[in-house]
C-alpha cells in the first residue's frame, strides 16, 4: 500500500457528484461544454469551473439546489446580455461577468450561445 505524502492517514474521499461529472443541470452543462475543443472543466470552490487554457470563462454550482451560472463576456457582449435579461454579477459585474439562472434543460440550450461567446473571448486572450 502506498502511503500518502501529505498529512497523516487516508485522504478524503471524492464526492460521488464530482466523480460522475455532476448531476442534474450541471451534468448537462458539463456534457455540452466538455465536447468543445480546448475546454477544461474542473471543480473549484463548490462550483464547476470552465476554462480555456488558464482563463476561466464561466462557472456553475456543484450543488443541485443552486442555479446561478456565471459567465465572463467582452464589454460589448455583456451589454447585449444585460439587455436580453441577464443580470450583472454581484461582485464582478465591472469585469464583464454576468449571472443567469439555469433551472431547466431548456435554459441550458438558451445559455449555450453566451457560453460559446465567452469561450471564444477567453481563447483570444
Can you tell me about this structure?
The protein is of the alpha+beta class. It has a single domain (23-124), classed as Aspartate Aminotransferase, domain 1 (Alpha-Beta Complex), CATH 3.90.1150.30. It has four helices and six strands; from the N terminus they run H-H-E-E-E-E-H-E-E-H. It has helices at residues 16-20, 24-34, 75-83, 105-124; strands spanning 39-44, 47-52, 55-61, 68-72, 87-88, 97-101. The chain has a six-stranded antiparallel beta sheet, covered by helices on one side. The chain starts with 15 loop residues before the first helix and ends with a helix. The mean pLDDT is 86.
Write a concise synopsis of the structure shown.
The chain is of the alpha+beta class and 125 residues long. It has four helices and six strands; from the N terminus they run H-H-E-E-E-E-H-E-E-H. The protein has a single domain (23-124), classed as Aspartate Aminotransferase, domain 1 (Alpha-Beta Complex), CATH 3.90.1150.
Amino acid at each position: 500500500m502506498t502511503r500518502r505524502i501529505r498529512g497523516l492517514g487516508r485522504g478524503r474521499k471524492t464526492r460521488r457528484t464530482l466523480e460522475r461529472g455532476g448531476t442534474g443541470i450541471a451534468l448537462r452543462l458539463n456534457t455540452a461544454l466538455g465536447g468543445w475543443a480546448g475546454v477544461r472543466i474542473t471543480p473549484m470552490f463548490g462550483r464547476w469551473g470552465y476554462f480555456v487554457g488558464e482563463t476561466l470563462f464561466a462557472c456553475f454550482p456543484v450543488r443541485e439546489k443552486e442555479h446561478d451560472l456565471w459567465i465572463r463576456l467582452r464589454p460589448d457582449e455583456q451589454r447585449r446580455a444585460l439587455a436580453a435579461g441577464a443580470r450583472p454579477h454581484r461582485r464582478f459585474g465591472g469585469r464583464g461577468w454576468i449571472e443567469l439562472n439555469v433551472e431547466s434543460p431548456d435554459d441550458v440550450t438558451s445559455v449555450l450561445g453566451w457560453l460559446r461567446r465567452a469561450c471564444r473571448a477567453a481563447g483570444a486572450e
